[in-house]
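Example record

The entry below shows one chain as it appears in the dataset: sequence first, then structure tokens.
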Amino acid sequence: MKSLMFLIFIFFSVIIYSSCNKPDYSNPAIPNRHQVYQQVEQQMRELANDIGLPDNVNKLNRPTGVYITYTYNEYDDELIDRINSVLSSQQWTMIKIDNTEYQEFLAVYCRNSFRVEVFTAPNQPELYLSLKWDGWNKICEKAMSQSH
């Protein structure tokens, strides 16, 4: 009898555990967040194939933000030109946005609901290449509507 109760306990524990740890893809902040994250990863791999592998990769997949940032510890004008050339050839559209106290933008590109930022940070020697889902802030949509 004890073993039957133990098996029933294990069975229900597994059911409860699996239902509690299921990813929540229904968060209204980013519809289809898992698919968006996969698209961001795929697009970043395509960029890295043409630009070159970074020194560091930082990934964020949260309900309110999906992005991947590549860090290049050393960079020169040639790398920046290569990044701009690759993004242009892949049909990304350059937009203008203002710098922040944390980011000095060298270039910002948009395509569909995604944004690529090429930037440096104050007092840091690295170059950052970040691909983000832009559906939350709609920076691309706003910039593209202002340019027309």
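Notes for this example: The longest strand covers residues 65-72. The beta strands are 56-62, 65-72, 93-95, 104-111, 114-120, 127-133.
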